[in-house]
Write a structure and sequence with these properties.
- It is globular, with a radius of gyration of 27 Å.
- 32% of the residues lie in helices and 22% in strands.
- Helix 5 crosses helix 8.
- It starts with a helix and ends in a 20-residue tail after the last helix.
- The relative contact order is 0.11.
- It is an alpha+beta fold.
- The structure holds adenosine-5'-triphosphate and manganese (II) ion.
- The site of adenosine-5'-triphosphate has 17 residues, from strand 11, strand 15, strand 16 and helix 15.
């Protein structure tokens, strides 16, 4: 019976005979094998009696090889571990040729994150990515637990969408037509009636509109699915394929929406602290090492754990867009033209540099901005009395900028239709959405949390490509 290393270390039963299976991380002095099986960041050390061991076998214990070790669990004399296995048998399950391993990221030296990305097929074997993917799992689980505890239903919204009115970003086409010779109609245009779905279809950019349909029957729902945006922006915060959590709540107004978003983020940070201590500790140290190479001004003032606790312990600052614009307009970086995009007048869309200024320099805590100009927001957001703004809210986080985008939805049929027309959106495409505003409409709200943005915050990593196993970005869909 194999025991996972995590279980072995959390309740060590000295004197028991155990079997572990995993991959060799190092082999020192023909005697000490460090084995990792991915269940924890910690390795278990197996000590072999090399004088009694077959020389052929010793040669095959190499970095990257998979092994099964059986022996007695004993208290360790060495430092760095409290227990170790006194190996009675070592079986090589899969060899790893040292000459070939040497050329990969498995070789024991410091590799850049860029290099690790090129070898995304092997990076789960590293400490950094093992930690990230374990935390990723914990956060997925925490998301479901949070909503389940509050009576929200998980809804699967379609991934292939026939609606082109989601409006959240550029879409990827889904078609089975031959790109070299698509069928044409009489007008000489591509005839999508002959396509698989007999119409044009795309990959979803958001499950919100369908989520609203569910909320307007089931009260509180959430989606947690893949979303696709053909964003040609090569930033450290955008992916072409990412995972989004979108709760949608009937009878919620904007302030209720903000309360839920704040509670949700605090819960997730707390869950990580409680359940991912070893991995966070490793990543914290990693962050400190990285910071030490940077100029003082770019270093984090708080370490990873302090940043997580900071979010839990502080109320998020709620500020209207209008107030924020005033703050930004009068800010030092704006006056000294340090911002890439200067803030000149009300109505400007905020860039991540502005969002981060508000959070990191001005308020020094997470910020919820609300009541944005209607012209920079989507058609479905609820129109305010002033005729200029809508009930939108974005949650801004240190190091990241926007982590959540949400709004109270326009529940008044006529107002919604008016806005759809104003924005030149095909009303026919939204007949189903409009129907809910005719049959028992109610105030409702929701938001979207980009799961990988959350992961950036919780792991302290700087590039979104490093918090998803296989990133998709412009020009890159490897593996
Ligand atoms: P941004 O201004 O940062 O591009 P957005 O306004 O396009 O974000 P929304 O459409 O409101 O974002 O999407 C909701 C959430 O999804 C965002 O708050 C963010 O956390 C996440 N998100 C949006 N686009 C991406 C992307 N390309 N990659 C990863 N996460 C994203
Ligand atoms: Mn965007």
């Amino acid at each position: 019976m194999r025991t996972k290393i995590k279980a072995l270390l959390s309740k060590p039963e000295i004197g028991h005979n155990v079997t572990v299976k995993g991959w060799v991380r190092s082999f020192r002095n023909d005697r000490f094998i460090a084995i990792n099986d991915g269940s924890t960041i910690k390795n278990i050390q197996a000590v072999i009696d090399f004088e009694q061991s077959d020389e052929q076998l010793l040669k095959r214990i190499t970095i990257g090889a998979s092994v099964a070790v059986n022996g007695e669990l004993i208290a360790s004399m060495g430092k760095g571990q409290s227990v170790e296995i006194k190996a009675e048998s070592v079986t090589i399950l899969g060899d790893a040729d040292p000459e070939e391993v040497k050329l990969t990221i498995l070789s024991p030296k410091k590799h850049s994150l860029e290099k690790l990305r090129e070898e995304a097929h092997l990076r789960p074997r590293t400490n950094t990515f093992g930690a990230i993917f374990r935390i990723r799992h914990a956060m997925i689980f925490a998301v479901h637990r949070f909503f389940n505890e509050r009576g929200f239903l998980n809804i699967h919204t379609p991934i292939i969408t026939g609606s082109d009115a989601e409006g959240a970003g550029e879409m990827f086409r889904v078609t089975t037509l031959d790109p070299a010779a698509p069928p044409k109609n009489d007008a000489g245009e591509v005839d999508f009636k002959q396509d698989f779905f007999a119409k044009e279809t795309n990959l979803t950019v958001s499950g919100q509109l369908e989520g609203e349909l569910a909320a307007l029957a089931l009260s509180d729902i959430y989606t947690f699915g893949p979303t696709f945006r053909a964003e040609n922006s090569n930033t450290s915060r955008h992916l072409a394929e990412f995972w989004m959590i979108e709760p949608e709540m009937a009878f919620y107004e904007l302030a209720d929406n903000m309360d839920l978003a704040e509670e949700f983020l605090k819960y997730l940070a707390g869950y990580a602290l409680e359940h991912c201590a070893d991995d966070l500790e490793f990543l914290k140290q990693r962050g400190i090492d990285e910071d030490s190479k940077k100029p003082q001004a770019e270093r984090n003032e708080m370490d990873l754990m302090e940043r997580l606790r900071f979010v839990i312990e502080n109320d998020f600052q709620r500020v209207s867009y209008t107030e924020a614009i005033e703050i930004l307009r009068n800010s030092k970086p704006n006056k000294k033209k340090k911002f890439k995009y200067l803030i000149e007048e009300w109505g400007a869309d905020l860039q991540s540099e502005h969002e981060r200024f508000l959070v990191e320099k001005h308020f020094k805590r997470p910020v919820i901005l609300f009541d944005y100009p209607k012209n920079i927001k989507a058609f479905y957001m609820r129109q305010n009395e002033d005729g200029k703004t809508v009930g939108a809210m974005d949650v801004l986080f240190p190091g990241i900028g926007e982590i959540i985008g949400g709004s109270q939805r326009e529940e008044r049929h006529d107002k919604l239709l008016e806005r759809i027309k104003e924005m030149d959106i095909h009303e026919e495409d939204l007949w189903w959405y409009l129907t809910t505003r005719k049959f028992g409409t109610v105030p409702h709200s929701g938001f979207g949390l980009g799961f990988e943005r959350l992961m950036l915050f919780v792991t302290g990593m700087g590039n979104i490509r490093d918090v998803i196993p296989f990133p998709r970005t412009p020009g890159s869909a490897e593996f």
